[in-house]
Amino acid sequence: MMEAQGAIMPGAVAIAGFYHETNTFSALPTTFRDFEDYQFAVGSDLLDRYEGTGTELGGMILAARERDVDLAPLLFAAAVPSGTITRGCLDRILDMLMRALHDADPVAGLLLVLHGAAVAEGVEDADGHLLARFREALGADCPIVVTTDYHANLSSWMVASADAIVGYDSFPHVDMADRGAEAVSILQRLRNGGPLAAAFRKLPLATVPQRQPTAEEPVVRILARLHELENTPEIVCGTLAMGFPYADTGDLGASVLVYGESDDAVNAAADEIAGLLWSHRRDFLPELTPMEDLAGAIGPEAEVPLILADPADNIGGGSAGDGTVVLRELLRAGASGAVVVINDPAAASDAAEVGVGGRFSGMVGGKVDRAHGEPVHIEGSVVYSGEARFRHSGSYMTGFVTSMGLTAVVAAEGVQVVITSLRTMPFDIEQLRAVGIEPAEQRIIVVKSATAWRAAYGPLAASTLTLDTPGICPSNLARLPYRNRPRPLYPLETDDSFPDS
């Protein structure tokens, strides 16, 4: 449809995105409404909404302005991580993207924001499926540059369909705008100089988020070497994608992807980084605090504020956010000065009916499934009720506005229970401030997250415990009933399963 013969095509550069991290073990299917409720922007609204934000789109828009690149905004759709995307939803968004692309014809390239771990009904590699549709529509000569999440399960299909894929270099994710700007730079390079050599390595390695922070070992060492290679003349960019272990697909696992000026250079670099990553595989095994040790750990001697991470109910990994295991234990132990966020629209509505100053008595949490605990009865005064939203002030998606929907805060003994109607990831400190809670004044803050919470609460945390909680984002991957994953896959298979160990 939009094939061009010259090195530089006429027209503006299209900008678009489809972003979802799919937990295939979730009981919550992802529908079109989920995208509408979180991030959905069409046409010029995409530019208006994301310009100046610390997102990939924000970085792309700024870099395009600086380089006098005209942008043709198509559509951006993102949903909070959750279960498998319905096929109707995927097809509807893809049709909207293709229609918008047709209306923008001709275009001189495509900047595309993907997550890299999207799964839909009947489409295991939804990112590859979408990329292939764009390639078919744009033709072989139109450059496509993609940004992906650090947790992307990169596939050969994705790599074959794009001219370049640029992954995040940070976890918690604080470099999204930088990667967006880098994508613009690479697209301009492609338009002026032709294709790049690529080397892709898929490793039989699954790791959990607690061991993946990029400022900590072993990742900091691996990324440092990758960045050294990126600074050599023949390497343009490299990506270390640690993968998303809760998407049960044949592409699950860590990847290394390198682009450069020659096949020899990119293959040597990719082999070196892949070998270094594999050599550190045992260093990715997590360290956890058993739930039976929690009561002793939150006593008067605890260094506070104490952050309790509940990784198995990780909203950013696709869980329901209504796990009750930690809440139940805090109430049982008589904790004081604690804050727990629970997603429960029905309980939030019930508390709103009681009203601020009234007495709430009811069951909260544990309603989507029982994987994260049974509903817990709480009783206490309603100290906040209303529609809650906040603007991100921290390093993650700076400037973006997140809605928690109808929200209530119930002071139940020594625990403030924040009950939301929309699943909200604990990635910005303004989440609690939006409902009248100052994080620095709390003794204990429970975050339903594995690692990304550090962008918000890391600076104020005096101590941290990562708990061995049950759920669909477990730290022990052997708990999950995988059916489609690669085999062998470390650590689910032992070293003797890998002949080159």
Can you describe what's shown?
The chain is α/β, with parallel strands linked by helices and 501 residues long. The protein folds into two domains: 12-284, no CATH class; 291-475, no CATH class. Helices cover 28% and strands 23% of the residues. An eight-stranded mixed β-sheet has the order 12-13-14-15-11-16-10-17. It has a six-stranded mixed β-sheet with strand order 2-3-1-4-5-6, sandwiched between helices. It is globular, with a radius of gyration of 23 Å. The chain starts with 11 loop residues before the first strand and ends in a 35-residue tail after the last strand. Mean pLDDT is 95; it is low at 1-8.
Amino-to-carboxy terminus distance = 48 Å
State the helicity in percent bands.
25-40%
What's the overall geometry? Answer: globular
Largest sheet: 8 strands, mixed
**Averaged pLDDT:** 95
**Radius of gyration, taken over Cα atoms and rounded to an integer in Å:** 23 Å
Please tally the β strands and state the result. Answer: 17
Give the strand line-up of the largest sheet: 12-13-14-15-11-16-10-17
What proportion of the residues form beta strands (DSSP E)? 15-25%
Unreliable spans are 1-8
Number of helices: 14
When the domains are counted, the total is: 2
Structural class: alpha/beta
